[in-house]
Amino acid sequence: MTTLAADREIEALMALHPKGFDLSLDRISRLLERLGNPQDRLPPVIHIAGTNGKGSCAAFSRALLEAAGHLVHVHTSPHLVNWHERYRLAADGGGRLVDDEVFAEAIARVAKANAGQKITVFEILTAVTFILFSEHPAAAAIIEVGLGGRFDATNVVARPAVSVIMPVSLDHEAYLGDRVELIAAEKAGIIKPGCPVIIGAQETETALQVLIETAERLDCPTFVYGQDFLAYEENGRMVYQDEDGLMDLPPPRLPGRHQFANAAAAIAAVKAAGFEISHRAAEKAMTSVAWPGRMQKLAQGRLAELAPKGADIWLDGGHNPGAGIVVAEALAEQEDKNPRPLFLISGMINTKDQSGYFRAFKGLARHVYTVPVSMSDAGVPNDELAIRAVEAGLSAEPVSSVASALMLLRDTWDGPPPRILIGGSLYLAGAVLAENGTPPA
């Protein structure tokens, strides 16, 4: 396989700079000053933080704006297969992942401006986001927070068109705190004085209260899910409601009841950012939205061909207890409509609550095959992960790979075509998409 020019630039950076996060805005601010502060020359920014659902909100926001005829930049992280996935540049027909030559040139320019000073690779790549988005025209820029909010490198945008806080729960406790109110306070750090705020469906009153109090203290126009806007299912449709009235829409293309709330947050955010969304545009967005690696159906590909005949295969990168709950609920909905035995193929990293993730599937999953996560140094050994699944009340066994799990299930299962969830880690999701021959585009 040919190594892309941008990959070579990033590999060189990783050899020079520390891996991981070092939460501070000092280094990124210094670097952006040298680059002429490109973050101040962006189109209207929709800035999205949260523990779960922020990627889905970004995907819905993009779909809504493009359905309304706008050109949109999108920054998301992490990527699944290629670094280029983090940067979708505005273009007719739905935008495009950044061209390798353009990406490599931007990385080299930012690295040169940094002049070898202490910095993290994520901060350099965030500066690349601002370079790319400021130099290519668009009507809006959707920017997803990398980690936390207050000290995330994306949080140098002084006046976002809207700040969005999606569901907050425990994750990244080593960086953000071990109580939900502490994590909510970090996420609330993206809220800027006087700028509109959308608060998505929260799992706890504690998180909700922290977010509302922060927005009120900063005198922000604030719109709260369940109070100022909401979405619900009615006769197989999604009804969105806010102060402007109702929209009767198709159910979101992204499966799971939780996507109703994610879609609602995106509609509210795009409107709060100053864009009009017609009923027709909202309908188109619900049926066209795509978000790879998040309850993505694998209907074809090299790995899919190894599964039992007729198997219903889903891939999801959710990796914490909150994600486990919403994914399990989505699969339970499918079970109600079309009963099938559920099997999990799971890989996780050691910074996540593995037992907490598995507990969501107790009583739903028939068996778990645990696999290594080879794309991360922090991968939990498959035999240890099987123990965590058993502790959560599931039947589990370690196997060497996703391919091995699929073939083992194919060779030993003699019941009806199963439903299979491959998940537990975005690293695993990316490896699966690469091996399956279906990377994001």
Description:
This is tetrahydrofolate synthase. It catalyses: (6S)-5,6,7,8-tetrahydrofolyl-(gamma-L-Glu)(n) + L-glutamate + ATP = (6S)-5,6,7,8-tetrahydrofolyl-(gamma-L-Glu)(n+1) + ADP + phosphate + H(+). Its cofactor is Mg(2+). InterPro entries: Folylpolyglutamate_synth, Folylpolyglutamate_synth_CS, Mur-like_cat_sf, Mur_ligase_C_dom_sf, Mur_ligase_cen. Its EC number is 6.3.2.17. This protein is of the alpha/beta class and about 450 residues long. The chain has 2 domains: about 280 residues, UDP-N-acetylmuramoyl-L-alanine:D-glutamate ligase (3-Layer(aba) Sandwich); about 140 residues, Mur ligase, C-terminal domain (Protein-Tyrosine Phosphatase, Chain A, Alpha-Beta Complex), CATH 3.90.190. The chain is about 40% helix and about 15% strand. It is built from 15 helices and 17 strands. Strands 4-3-2-5-1-6-7-8 form an 8-stranded mixed beta sheet, sandwiched between helices. Helix 8 links the parallel strand 7 and strand 8. The radius of gyration is 21 Å and the shape is globular.
